């Protein structure tokens, strides 16, 4: 079998195992990306979750000897939730971003890449391969763009004509000289909706993201959320879809193709108050299989507290007071203090006054002061 014929068979096999798009690209260095990454570092726009070595991010040959080609894959995920529950007063709900609905995509893509590797090895025993998803050194989006999966949009997502930007990406470096696909032309045109509606102004300009301001990143941090972002988080527990939901290219892209990614509404839109007291064991049992659980329960709990403050949910105040009194984690105690002040009940005021006398942690004490300041503002009003 010649290589062209095998490549066609590989594309067909990829479709059989649930890969929605596959493309082939050169493993030449990503020189243009290197310049952008250096600029991102200089501007301090990086999240810190990325591979710190820029050379590894742009040179596939450092990751696999004799690298010749890169196989890029994409799997579509759903943008619509069937029977989505609605939050109401006394039973408020948070939301996980669409990329965290259903099975953790890291596992789903790795499973398919393993199958692709086995298929290739069965036909080319001398093949060398290295696969990665999201946490690998290469930029998934740069690879996908070069391989013709989609174009790199102004919101820094890859947009595909078939599935919009609701796609998971992965890649495999190999020494097999596949025939390369052509990159797509940019189809964003003059549209700048994603830039204009970003809640925190994280999309600095088309194609440039200040990750430190991106809500998707902020919801994954573990410390105190900076004050300027607390009012714009809303009820987001993990991630943010705003720059995708406003994109015209995503209209009518439901992508309900893979049952494993269909969300359980009670997990994708969970009740907020039970999250305040959930144990580690309970959290892992309920949320452990979704990608949004990777940082553990602490960021989710902190975000749930902020969401309850956003709703001014008075029914949550007793649980928030208990966290302020007895939780061992300063971030949770302090965020609870801020939320209590934001909600503004009389019992909350008394709890903050008592906590002011008892609290030993300086950062928590500062949050208690912020909470009390909300009451002072209310009195002035």
Helical fraction equals: 40-55%
Straight-line N-to-C gap:
80 Å
Identify low-pLDDT runs: none
Largest sheet: 4 strands, antiparallel
Q: Helix and strand string, N-terminal first?
A: HEHHEEHEHEEEHEEHHEHHHHHHHH
- Count of helical stretches: 16
Beta content: 5-15%
**Tally of DSSP β-strands:** 10
Shape designation: elongated
How is the secondary structure organized here?
Elements: H1 3-16, E1 21-26, H2 31-43, H3 54-58, E2 69-76, E3 95-96, H4 105-123, E4 129-132, H5 140-146, E5 151-152, E6 158-159, E7 167-174, H6 193-197, E8 203-205, E9 208-209, H7 215-218, H8 227-230, E10 236-238, H9 242-245, H10 265-268, H11 280-287, H12 297-311, H13 317-326, H14 330-343, H15 346-358, H16 362-380
Parallel strand pairs: 3-10
Antiparallel strand pairs: 1-2, 2-7, 4-7, 5-6, 8-9
Helix pairs in contact: 1-4, 12-14, 13-14, 13-15, 14-16, 15-16
